[in-house]
Design brief:
The protein is an alpha/beta fold and 315 residues long.
């Protein structure tokens, strides 16, 4: 019982209420440990030689490391390090940082079909169709004859129907100026008038004689898309738009006969089974063709005319 009474008394003696001086001292110690630093370098400059981290002294703060000074490196056991400077690497890095990055050229008026740039003749300056060419880069050039050069062997001449009605001799002179310099020669026509049947017939005749390919655009946006597409598909093969026909006899026979109005693939099989070959069909009369199942008088007459009428109508 005596021991049990003495133990609480000892615990009471060990507990001591702190005084005002003790509280003030502990507060000052805490403020000294959490004092703000002037820079990140000061925050990281702790004395690593001791077991506890202590903020740097005033003497260590006053010493600033030189820019080109040699920084000693402490070698770890089993590791060899060198602390000499490498000025040549520093000079190389400085020169590489001083050089600006090269920006892609906007395309000058140099050679024909320069890279991914559409070359535009100076005669087209102010043409509103240029505002519709947005998906490819273009640049003015004084060294080209056509209005637009969209490839090494591709060019475009631009013409509006209203301008042709005012100057009907203009397009002929422009086509003659091309000579034989381009393989793909496109005549891009902007139809900007309702009464266009007679002018288009005249332009079509001039284009055929000048070996030009005609593209009709009914708006400026459509004309701009034609220019963009011809440039974007500069290196594409024509197979992507060419009709794919199987290289077999029945496939070619069906492809040719179905061009006749109202003739389908079933009619081609019927004619082939009855007449045996393309030659037998061509020698059959209209009455013989109409005897086949599924082929009436009207369809038989169309097939007979397709075999016997001339390709070029007589005048």
């Amino acid at each position: 019982m005596a021991d049990s009474t003495e133990q609480p008394e000892q615990r009471k003696r060990q507990f001591r209420i702190p005084t005002v001086e003790d509280i003030e001292k502990s507060r000052k110690d805490a403020e000294g440990r959490l004092a703000p630093v002037e820079s990140m370098r000061d925050a990281l400059a702790f004395d690593l030689s001791s077991s506890t981290l202590r903020p740097p002294t005033a003497a260590s703060k006053s010493i600033a490391p030189a820019t080109n000074a040699t920084v000693p490196v402490v070698a770890q056991p089993g590791e060899v390090r060198t602390s000499h400077n490498q000025p040549e690497n520093t000079a190389t890095a400085a020169s590489s940082q001083a050089q600006p990055l090269a920006s892609p050229a906007g395309g000058g008026g140099g050679g024909r079909g320069s890279g991914q740039v559409v070359l535009v003749n100076e005669l087209q300056r102010g043409n509103p169709v240029l505002e519709c060419v947005r998906n490819v880069r273009w640049s003015y050039s004084k060294d080209i004859i056509p209005d637009y050069v969209v490839g090494r062997t591709s060019c475009i001449l631009y013409l509006s129907v209203k301008y042709h009605r005012l100057h009907p001799e203009y397009i002929s002179k422009r086509i003659d100026g091309l000579a034989k310099n381009y393989r793909l020669r496109v005549l891009l026509i902007y139809v900007d008038t309702d009464d266009c049947k007679i002018p288009l017939r005249e332009i079509n005749r001039i284009a055929v004689l000048g070996e030009m390919t005609i593209l009709l655009a009914w708006s400026l946006d459509e004309a701009g898309r034609y220019i963009e597409t011809l440039k974007a598909f500069e290196h594409r093969q024509p197979d992507i738009i060419r009709e794919r026909v199987e290289d077999t006899y029945m496939a070619r026979l069906s492809n040719s006969l179905t061009n006749i109005k109202s003739v389908n693939k079933t009619d081609v099989l019927t004619l082939s089974s009855n007449f045996g070959s393309f030659e037998g069909m061509s020698k059959a009369t209209s009455n013989e063709l109409s005897l086949c199942a599924g082929i009436g008088d009207l369809k038989a007459q169309r097939i007979f005319k397709a075999f016997h009428e001339p390709f070029i109508p007589e005048k």
